[in-house]
């Protein structure tokens, strides 16, 4: 049996992050849940029996300090899951305020870059042949009116995945992404309850006929970080029930 790895999950207090943290914990890894909301990170960690960290991924200095502090306390980070992101900015191209667009770019793109850079530097310094998995979205490839700010940021995450993969491959560090369609997090369940017109509209776009459960996304992340994916890097794996086929 392989040694447990240190797995850092950003945005770990949210629905998808919590599911990913649970999956890595159950696989025997040592999980650190990071979130900008310190109280939520602590509560999630206490519930799951894992470690936690308050972290603003848009702060480059804080990201560098976090990578060093985790290494000092637990050992080198072996897996980074870039799950942190915001989906709260909506608006048509002709109506969206530039400031609102910048806010989603700052978190979803620059924040992902910042923490990836900090952790990759430590992996290289330690000779860690690690894995990085970014949480993207099929929206980066299939547009939905009003969601262009989020979707274009996720297209950039896919590009960042390929950039990091080609540059870090020589260090034995693999970088991939998981691109879900809509996922039934607690927040989405509240906004689109079972039987609602909105839920039915989304489900009708999916060949498998339903939105993804968190538990159907997390295994893909664990797989891409595993030895079973040792020869896979630079890919963005859709977990969408076939929605990109339509």
Automatic annotation (TrEMBL):
UniProt keyword list: NAD, Oxidoreductase
E.C. numbers: 1.1.1.47
Entries under InterPro entries matching the protein: KR_dom, NAD(P)-bd_dom_sf, SDR_fam
Top enzyme category: oxidoreductase
One Pfam family, short name: adh_short_C2
GO molecular function: glucose 1-dehydrogenase [NAD(P)+] activity
Domain Ketoreductase: 5-181
SMART domains: PKS_KR
Family membership noted in the UniProt record: Belongs to the short-chain dehydrogenases/reductases (SDR) family.
Name of this protein: Glucose 1-dehydrogenase
Organism encoding this protein: Agromyces soli
């Amino acid at each position: 049996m392989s040694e447990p790895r240190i797995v850092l999950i950003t945005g770990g207090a949210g629905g998808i992050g919590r599911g990913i943290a649970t999956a890595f914990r159950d696989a025997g890894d040592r999980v650190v849940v990071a979130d900008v909301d310190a109280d939520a990170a602590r509560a999630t960690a206490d519930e799951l029996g894992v470690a936690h960290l308050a972290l603003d991924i848009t702060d480059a200095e804080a990201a560098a300090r976090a990578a060093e502090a985790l290494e000092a306390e637990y050992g080198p980070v072996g897996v980074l899951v870039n799950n942190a992101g915001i989906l709260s900015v909506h608006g048509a191209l002709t109506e969206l305020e530039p400031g609102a667009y910048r806010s989603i770019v700052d978190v979803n793109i620059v924040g992902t870059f910042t923490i990836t850079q900090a952790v990759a530097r430590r992996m290289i310094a330690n000779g860690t042949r690690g894995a990085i998995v970014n949480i993207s979205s099929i929206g980066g490839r299939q547009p939905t009116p009003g969601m262009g700010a989020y979707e274009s940021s996720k297209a950039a995450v896919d590009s960042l995945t390929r950039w990091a993969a080609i540059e870090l491959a020589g260090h034995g560090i693999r970088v991939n992404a998981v691109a879900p369609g809509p996922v039934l997090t607690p927040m989405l369940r509240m906004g689109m309850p079972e039987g609602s017109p909105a839920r039915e509209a989304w489900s009708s776009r999916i060949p498998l006929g339903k939105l993804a459960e968190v538990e159907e996304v997390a295994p893909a992340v664990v797989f891409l970080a595993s030895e079973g994916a040792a020869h896979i890097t630079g890919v963005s794996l859709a977990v969408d029930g076939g929605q990109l086929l339509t």
